[in-house]
Automatic annotation (TrEMBL):
Coiled coil: none annotated. It comes from the Eukaryota. InterPro entries: Band_7, Band_7/SPFH_dom_sf, Flotillin_fam. The keyword Cell membrane applies. The keyword Lipoprotein applies. This is Flotillin-like. GO terms for cellular component: caveola. It is found in: Cell membrane; Membrane, Caveola. Residues 43-143 form the Band domain. It comes from Triticum turgidum subsp. durum.
């Protein structure tokens, strides 16, 4: 694919094999030739003489480098600069194949071919007219013939060179094996010498270590003997001192135990006294709480009895009045002095004002005065006084007397 991302087919023929001759007689060129042959021998040994793997490897290198180079050029540059393109491909492929010991003997890039659907070269051929197209066909056929003939010739030459390289490789391998065995023998000899020297050093060190161990054992035994002697001398002193210290310690311990027991006994007595005080205080508080509880229980019982008595009283009064709730209510109000309290409150409310005051009398005459001591006349006077009184209460408070008692007078007339 070109730089314009136009795909095309690039037929090419490469003749590739191992490098069998140096470029010159210079030492560097000969050394380079030896390195190339060694790389090729390693490649063949690695692939187990399988030429198909070698072909696949070379093909992959050629295709990869060609694609990279084609992507940097336009179609016109590739078409017009075929020779330059071929040289660049040759250089890039040769650089990659050198690491495998391979050399490009010939590289023939054939005519570019269109990919189906992308007829760039077809249009280009029409533009260069039919003659140029015929000439291109001839060139392609000739190039194909030369390529095939050259490929056959190179194939035979490659096989010959490969056989020669294989023989030289075997000789080189035998030489390297001999050299390797010499080096291995030298290394073994050096190892044996080293082991012998190490053994001598170890023997000398072992003797020195053993002498040191023996000397240490002698010194340890001397130290043990001195230690036993010192122990024997110090044992008697230590025994006497120990007995004395034990007696002193026992006496001190006995005195401390007695002091501790006395202090403990005192603390126990103090704790018992505090406990007794706490028990007494707790008992006193409990008795006080019990008394309060008993008083509250009695108070509740008295309240319950009073309530029960009131309930029975109200029930008996209601039964006596024939179940008349209004009559019972009015009676209770009169009995509790509610009307009197109402009159007192109203009088206090109008104190300092100018209220409407009604004055009335029983209308008695001289004959009545003569009979004032009569009880019937007193009752009659009370009944005469009630209507004006109730009328005044009604005017002041808006409350009406009960229906069973009386009705208010109309236009100041008493009923």
């Amino acid at each position: 694919m070109s730089a314009e991302k136009l795909p095309f087919i690039l037929p090419a023929v490469f003749t590739i094999g191992p490098k069998i001759s140096a470029t010159s007689n210079e030492v560097a060129d000969k050394r380079d030739l030896d390195e190339q042959l060694l790389l090729y021998a390693k490649l063949i040994a690695l692939l187990h003489h399988n030429t198909s793997h070698v072909h696949d490897l070379v093909k992959g290198v050629i295709e990869g480098e060609t694609r990279v180079l084609a992507a940097e050029l336009t179609m016109e540059e590739i078409f017009k600069g075929t020779k330059t393109f071929k040289e660049k491909v040759f250089d890039m492929v040769q650089l990659e194949l050198k690491q495998f010991g391979l050399f490009i003997y010939n590289a023939n890039v054939k005519q570019l071919v269109d990919v189906p659907g992308h007829e760039y070269f077809s249009y280009l051929g029409q533009r260069t007219q039919q003659d140029a197209a015929n000439q291109a066909k001839v060139d392609v056929a000739e190039a194909r013939m030369k390529g095939e003939v050259g490929a056959k010739e190179r194939e035979g030459l490659t096989r010959q060179n490969a056989a020669k390289v294989d023989a030289e490789t075997k000789v080189l391998s035998v030489r390297q094996m001999g050299q390797g065995q010499k080096e291995e023998l030298a290394m073994k000899k050096a190892g044996w010498d080293k082991q012998a020297k190490v053994a001598e050093v170890e023997v000398a060190k072992a003797v020195a270590i053993r002498e040191a161990e023996l000397q240490m054992e002698v010194e340890i035994k001397n130290a043990m003997r001195q230690t036993e002697k010192l122990k024997a001398e110090q044992l008697s002193k230590a025994t006497v001192q120990y007995d004395t210290q034990v007696q002193d310690s026992n006496a001190l311990l006995y005195s401390r135990q007695k002091a501790a027991e006395a202090a403990l006994f005192e603390q126990m007595r103090t704790a018992e006294a505090r406990k007794a005080q706490a028990d007494a205080k707790f008992f006193e508080q409990k008795m006080a709480e019990d008394a309060k509880l008993y008083a509250k229980q009695k108070e509740a019982e008295s309240v319950a009895l009073v309530g029960k008595a009131k309930t029975e009283y109200v029930a008996s009064m209601l039964q006596a009045l024939g179940g008349n709730y209004h009559a019972l209510r009015d009676y209770l109000m009169i009995d509790s002095g509610m009307y009197t309290e109402m009159a007192r409150i109203n009088a206090g409310a109008v104190n300092g004002m100018q209220p409407k005051i009604s004055i009335w009398s029983n209308g008695g005459d001289a004959g009545g005065e003569a009979a004032a001591g009569s009880a019937l006349q007193q009752v009659a006077g009370v009944y005469k006084m009630l209507p004006p009184l109730l009328s005044t209460v009604h005017e002041q408070t808006g409350m009406s007397p009960p229906a069973w008692m009386c009705t208010l007078p109309k236009d100041g007339a008493a009923n």
